[in-house]
Amino acid sequence: MRAWQIRRPGPIEGGPLRFVDAAEPRPGPGEVRVRVLACGVCRTDLHLAEGDLAPHRPGMVPGHEVVGVVDEHGPGAGRFAPGDRIGIPWLRGTCGRCRWCRSGRENLCPAAAFTGWDADGGFAEYAVVPESHAYRLPPGLGDAEVAPLLCAGIVGYRALRRAELPPGGRLGIYGFGASAHVVAQVAVAQGATVHVLTRSEPARELALELGAASAGPADGAPPEPLDSAVLFAPAGELVPVALRALDQGGTLAVAGIHLSDVPRLVYADELFREKQLRSVTANTRADGEEFLHLAGALGVRPVVTVRPLAEADRALADLAADRVTGAAVLVP
Questions:
Q1: Which residues contact 125 (CB under 8 A, 6 or more apart)?
Q2: Checking DSSP bridges between strand 2-6 and strand 17-21, what pairing results, if any?
Q3: Are 258 and 175 in contact (CB under 8 A)?
Q4: What positions does the domain Enoyl reductase (ER) occupy (predicted)?
Q5: Which of the pair, 228 or 57, is modelled with greater confidence?
Q6: Are 146 and 162 in contact (CB under 8 A)?
Q7: Fewest beta carbons within 10 Å, which of 122, 235, 241, 244?
Q8: Cβ–Cβ under 8 Å, residues 180 and 173
Q9: pTM for this structure?
Q10: CA triplet 61, 64, 70: central angle to 5 degrees?
Q11: Cα–Cα distance between 217 and 241 in angstroms, integer?
Q12: How many CA atoms lie within 13 A of 29 on its CB side?
C-alpha cells in the first residue's frame, strides 16, 4: 500500500515525510482493519512531523481522523461487520484499570495510546484500530465531511465543555482552524454569542458566514466581555490576551496538545476576580460518542478542502502557512 511516514522530524519545508510503498497492516486480537476512505489533516500531525511532539517510534504513519470501511477482523473482534463505515480517532487505547480510567477520566490514563503517535495512522490506504476505541459514524455526512469530527470536533467539544460556557453565554474563540470552526457551529446552534479572534482574514470571513457575532484580529479585543474562551491557536502569547478579555468568573480553556511559552501573567489584570485557566488533554470515548450524536442532531457541517493522499506533505505545508480555511482532508 502507499503511505506517508515521518522519517526525520523537522520543518515541513525540509520534507520530513516520505511517500513509500509499505506492507498492508494486519489486525491483531480485538482489532479491525479498514480500507481508508478519508483522513483529516490535523495540526497535531504537523507538530509530529516537525518534531514539536517527540515521535514515539521511527517511520510513523501520521493521521488520526480516519474514516474507513471494515475489511478484515483480528481474533476475537466482532463489534463491527464487514463493510461497516467506522472512524479511527486520536485516542486508540487505555488500560481500563488505573484510577483515571475507573473514574471516567480515561483521557488522563498514563498508559493511553494514540493513533499516528504510538501506532500507524491514516495517511495510508489501510489502517488498523482496536474495535473498542473506534466509532460508528453518523449518517448524512460524507466521508470527507465526517473525518475532521474525529479529532478536531471531539477534542474541540471537550474544550468547549472545559470552558464552562453558560447557556446563552458569550464565547471567545482564538484561532479559527479545523477544530474552532466546528466548535463555533455547535456554540451558535446552542444559542451562544460567538466572537472569533484570528490573524487569518479568510478565517474571519468564514467565522461570520458560520454565525459568529464578530471576527477580529487574534491580539485584538472582542466587542464585549466574555463568559468563556477557547484558545485553539498554539500561541502562548495569546493566553494573557484572552484572560484579559474574560468577564469576572470567566474561564479560558487551552485546547492544543502543543503551546508556545506563556508570558508572565499579571495577577490583578489577568487572573483576579475568580477567572480560571484550564488545559485540555485529549478526550474520553464518552466525549466522542456524545459529540458525534450532537453534531448529527445540530447539523454541524465541517468546511473541507479535499486533497489526494499523494499531496499530504503539501497539505501540511499549507496548514503551517495558514493557507487552509476550515479543514483539509486526504482521500486515497
A1: 1, 2, 3, 24, 35, 36, 309, 332
A2: antiparallel
A3: no
A4: 14-330
A5: 228
A6: no
A7: 244
A8: yes
A9: 0.93
A10: 90
A11: 11
A12: 0
